[in-house]
Amino acid sequence: MNNFVSKVLIMLSVVALCVACEKYVLDEQKMKGFSGDIVVDNEDGSHFTDPNIRVTFSESLKKDGTYDLFLKKVKFSEKMPVRIDMTIPSVTKSATDTLSGDSIVPWAMGGPFEKWTIRRLSGYITYACDSTQLELHFEMLCGDYPVTYHGIYTEE
After folding, report:
1. Residues 6+ apart with CB under 8 A from 122
2. What is the C-alpha to C-alpha distance for residues 58 and 73, in angstroms, rounded to an integer?
3. Higher pLDDT, 23 or 136
């Protein structure tokens, strides 16, 4: 019986190791994306810039023909106490690679952020001849604040 328990424990360890490796690969894939600056226009006319923000643009998890923008460790103000990961789901991409969306509730910290509903999102994505993403640019209202982003495709 001890031999059986030992074999089961070894098999469980191997499975756990394989699952951990698979997760690492998935996490590494998420690091491919754009690096650029988020610029927020404040009500007083000043601007807040958060440099080197990673953004990925990928097919939506909904599998409905739309796309998701994932902003990693972003701040929209000096006063934000923490950086957040935020997903802007259901972005439309046209045949000419222009982006659009309106009244999109973003997700952050495990739930919807209705107060910061995305309105008037517009932008574009450019590609190289081999279909590799090159640049991403978008503008939007996040709540009542105008936000712009421009990033260059990089692999981290």
Report:
1. 98, 99, 100, 138, 139, 140
2. 18
3. 136
Question: Cβ of 56: how many Cβ atoms within 10 Å?
Answer: 19
- How far is CA 98 from each of CA 38, 46, 84, 108, rounded to the nearest angstrom? 19, 28, 26, 25
Tokens of 110: 């495990």
Domain count, the chain: 1
Residue found by looking up tokens 């309105």 in the block:
119
* Helix or strand (DSSP H, E) at 22: helix 2-30
pLDDT over threshold 60, residue 2 = no
Question: pTM (2 decimals)?
Answer: 0.77
Give the domain extent around 122: 2-153
CATH assignment of the domain containing 64: 2.40.160
DSSP state letter for 20: H
Question: For residues 128 and 124, what is the distance between their CA atoms, to the nearest angstrom?
Answer: 14
Q: Which amino acid does the sequence have at 9?
A: L
In sequence order, what E strands does 26-117 have? 32-41, 47-59, 67-74, 84-93, 98-101, 107-108, 111-112
- Say how far apart CA 61 and CA 26 lie, in whole Å: 15
**Predicted local confidence at residue 8, as pLDDT:** 38
Q: Encoding tokens for residue 129? A: 């001849």
